[in-house]
């Protein structure tokens, strides 16, 4: 079993010596999700930050979201990606719809991102102010096919007794369809503020619909989610916090990437939270002490070393990736 001792010193963004960069790629991509969603803004931002700090070519890539990112990173088609704990667990178990039966064990956790709240948005003119107001046969946009929204929100609506017509698409496109009256509701699972919702607020009046206490309790019992409140200052529409549920997101890496490279990437992202918050406000949760929110994915040894040295993390050996296991 590899241990964190493989990377004895915390990396710094100043890995300038050629010897320190043995095996490093000259370029990299980060699998994100559709434009208009939080993943794309957040992922493109940290990709560009890492590229600038480490003197490499890198950037975000539009994808179908967490499920596809697990597949891209597992196969090595993307060096990095971002995923949510639910889709990550399903992928490890061979239940990813992109490749049923394939256990995606070559995708390693590298740092905590933020919680993804599940929230519902409708136009104020629709009169929909609660989940129970959603009419039978409502056209609901659940995000890109295979995304966290598309994987879990339809199941949640089923649990809450909502009868709907399922629609998929990128967040920007779905926001436009909602505004044009082609959709009745959008069910978002994305870090807040969701860019598409913020854009809608500027252009029209919207209702951001919270779950009742009873609805929240039902979802907590049925799904791998936690309690969450969307704070009132997230959107201009909100006058008080909105009750929700959430799922943690983690950045992932191809487990075969050099330990020193991943260590340096993690150091760039985790050592200066202000830079990350400037990329997206959801990064307020991208802090070292949230390392323990990963109970699903094996850690990349280079990332485990960083958190053990800099965050006092106590990561068990069986949670650190080894090519021998």
Q: Can you characterise this structure?
A:
Pfam families: NMT1_3 (PF16868). This is TAXI family TRAP transporter solute-binding subunit. InterPro entries: TRAP_TAXI. It comes from Histidinibacterium aquaticum. This protein has ten helices and ten strands. Strands 1, 2, 3, 4, 5, 6, 7, 8, 9 and 10 form a ten-stranded mixed β-sheet that branches. Helix 1 (38-54) crosses helix 8. The protein has helices at residues 38-54, 66-75, 85-92, 148-159, 171-179, 195-203, 213-222, 259-270, 273-279, 301-310; strands at residues 27-31, 57-61, 80-84, 107-123, 138-141, 164-167, 185-189, 206-209, 226-230, 242-254. It has two domains: 4-115 and 249-319, 3-Layer(aba) Sandwich (D-Maltodextrin-Binding Protein, domain 2), CATH 3.40.190; 116-246, Periplasmic binding protein-like II (D-Maltodextrin-Binding Protein, domain 2, 3-Layer(aba) Sandwich), CATH 3.40.190.10. Helix content is 32%, strand content 21%. It is an alpha/beta fold and 325 residues long.
